[in-house]
Every structure is written in structure tokens, then in C-alpha cells.
Amino acid sequence: MTTPVTDPPPRTDLSGLVKAYDVRGVVPDQWDETTAELFGAAFVRVTRADAIVTGHDMRPSSPGLAHAFARGATAQGADVTRIGLCSTDQLYYASGSLALPGAMFTASHNPARYNGIKLCRAGAEPVGQDTGLAEIRALVERWSDHGAPAPAGRAGAVTEQDTLTGYAAYLHSLVDLSSVRPLKVVVDAGNGMGGHTVPTVLAGLPLTVVPMYFELDGTFPNHEANPLEPANIVDLQARVRAEGADLGLAFDGDADRCFVVDENGDPVSPSAVTALVASRELDRHPGATVIHNLITSRAVPEVIREAGGTPVRTRVGHSFIKAEMARTGAVFGGEHSAHYYFRDFWNADTGMLAALHVLAALGTQGGPLSALTSRFERYAASGEINSTVTDQATRTAAVRAVWECRPDTVADDLDGLTVSGPDWWFNLRPSNTEPLLRLNVEARTDSLMRAVRDEVLVTVRGTADGRG
């Protein structure tokens, strides 16, 4: 009997580097330019692309990683268009407008020692574990010892192209800001790519822009570039009040997410922004479908229905949102994490376009932003509360046992465990990468929200400790 010959298993394990939606890890501990070159070769092999586009953020390691990726891609015969410094949504614009697969080098809001790659097919179609990333990882692991085999034929060429002005013009074509009243807006770029894109996108508009931390610096000397953490918007809140500004905008490191504060410096929840933008998009597309993930406020589907649209609820994560947008033809999608997706932007997420919608909505009426958004802030929310647990499934089952049998409750498993009552709901879902359970609670009143939150936490942790 002949024993079949099989390839030996790869000695390199990239499970800690290749995540569900992207590549992300510490440089050079987890990956370096040699690894990036293999990723470039594998990306071309899996997508079968004869041309791709690449861009990178301001992190010290980003240019070298992007150039190494291009070497791997060109060695496989693909031409590479490099757009250089850009935001992630600017890379999506390039992928969509040039009809090319793309690679963006960024670790978003992670600390400076991290870097990563967000990959997409032509038209900004996402590449995740189920849509090519697992195959890319397998090739990189296989080639780690001896390098990627180069096919016969010519090597690809590298060209450079500026897409920033085209990106800004395209956004302006989607939102009319020509008739807005003069506004003062404070923008905190967090030393990230918003400092690169905002000056061009907001140029020529009737806005007084007060810049904060626009200097590109991937070491993030002022604060982490993650505006969803309250500590990271304290400076913005204070500056909005001091300037008497109409609003403030904060971008994360790669500027694909945008967080909003009103004229009082109070945060406007991403759910309220989702509802506001959804109502505007439904004005343009009556009766259309709008996507929202299951962590967004119950106000979001209410507003969508009130505006004549059809809400569709999805799991958390951009791959699920984008897949549902493609399946349903939805005009817009929003997440609790301040990711906003637009059909007119190749179903990709762009915080900048959402910011333009907020500016347009505020600037075409006379009241303050707090009054404009108040009709979308209908419930009390806990925010995301993380609990470290040794057994996610056991703790979730314990919570289910406590709540599922109660009258007037409905439970579902779309993404973790969601339990809903007449005036409240909570979602408990496991982290994919850490031993955590993430809890979000919303209720009609703050007291009810706290009561539900604390009872769930007692089951999860053995103590409430609900952060106030």
C-alpha cells in the first residue's frame, strides 16, 4: 500500500496575527517587512489580481511594511499603485474608483508598536476569514521558511498616484454643503490620518475649523487615537466649550471612524448619528433598507421605520454589515462603534462622510446640535462593559437561565445572547480574541438600565460593579 505524500505542516503559526477581519500585531515581534512581503505575494495569488492599490497611515513602521508588501505583489506579476499616506476610507475610495483590490497599512487606534493590514477586493469588497484571509494566511505560513515562489513572466510595475483631492471631491458630490450656515467646528485628529484628510475635505466650506493634534505622529503623544474611550475626548470637549463651537469631531488613528460632541461638549452617541444619517439617506431614497447592528439603540430601527424605511438587524462587525448591505441593497448602515457604511461609497465605512452629513444637518437649520439630536436619544445606555471570565459559554448559559424564563422576555442568539423586554434589552457576547464577555444594556429609564445591568453582572462576575 502506498502512503500518500503530503506537504509538511507549516512551522510558522500566524493565528495570533491574522484576525477575523484583518492582520494586526506588534512590529517586529509578531511580524516585519519580510512577513509583509509574503502577505503581498499571497494577496495577489488569492485574489488573482494583475493590479492592486496600497496606502498607509503615519505609524513609523507603515511605509516600510507597505513597500515590502508591494515587492511581494510585484514579484507575482501584479502592478501596484501606491497612494501613500491616506485614511482607510481614502484607500476604499481608491479601491472603488480605480476598481482595484487594495491593502491599507494601519493598526487603527492600537498603540504605536502595533501595525496591520486591512485588505479588500476591487470595489472595496472586504477580505475576511471566510472571504480569502484564511487562504492568505495559509500561504504566508507555508512560505515563511523559503519565501514565495515567483511565477514565470514579468514582474509588476510600481506607480504613485495622489487620490486625496479626488476623495474629497467625491465626498462633496454625496453631501450638499453649499447652503449651510457658518459653523465653528473643533476637530481632534489624535495625531492620526484625520490631520491629513480633514484640511482638504473641509476646505472651501463655510466652516471655521479649530484643529487639534493635526500633526501626523504614529507615537500618539497626546492621547490614544480611540475616541470611543471617554478619556480620549476630554481635550476635545474642553476645547469645544472654550471656543463656543457648534460641535466637535474626533477621528481615530486611521480616520475611518468619527465621534461627535455637541455644543456643550456632550457626546452624541453613534446610535444617534446612525439615526440622523439614516433619516437623511431615506429622504434621498424613500422606502430603502438601512442596516444596524444589534448593539445600536432601539431608537435606530424606530427612526428608520418612522422615516418610511426598512431596518435590518445584523451581527457586530464590518464583514456582516457589508454582506447584508450587498444582499439587501441597503443605502446605509451604522454600528455602535462609530463605523458608518454607505451604498454610495461601495458599501464601505467612512467616518468622514458621516461627519459631512452631521454638518449638513446642523448647518441647514438654526438650532444647536443638542436639540437636533435629542429626538434620537430616547433611551439610557450602559455602554460596553467587559468582564474577564474563564468560561464564556458557561457564564452566558447562566445568564440565559436567569432571564430566558421570565414573562414578556424574548431571547435570541444572532450574536451572543440578546434578551429583550418591553422597556429594556441587553446583549452579552464573547470576545473572539480575549477571555471577555461584553455586556451592553439599554432601557427606557436610567434606573431601569442600572437595575438590569447590575443583575446581569452579578451572574457574570459574582458582583455588580457596573461603573456607577
Automatic annotation (TrEMBL):
Residues 18-143, 167-265, 272-379 form the Alpha-D-phosphohexomutase alpha/beta/alpha domain. The keyword Isomerase applies. Its cofactor is Mg(2+). It holds the Pfam family PGM_PMM_I. Keywords: Isomerase, Magnesium, Metal-binding, Phosphoprotein. Coiled coil: none annotated. The keyword Magnesium applies. Residues 384-456 form the Alpha-D-phosphohexomutase C-terminal domain. Gene3D superfamilies: Alpha-D-Glucose-1,6-Bisphosphate, subunit A, domain 3 (3.40.120.10), Alpha-D-phosphohexomutase, C-terminal domain (3.30.310.50). SUPFAM superfamilies: Phosphoglucomutase, C-terminal domain (SSF55957), Phosphoglucomutase, first 3 domains (SSF53738). It comes from the Bacteria. PANTHER family: PHOSPHOMANNOMUTASE. Belongs to the phosphohexose mutase family. This is Phosphomannomutase/phosphoglucomutase.
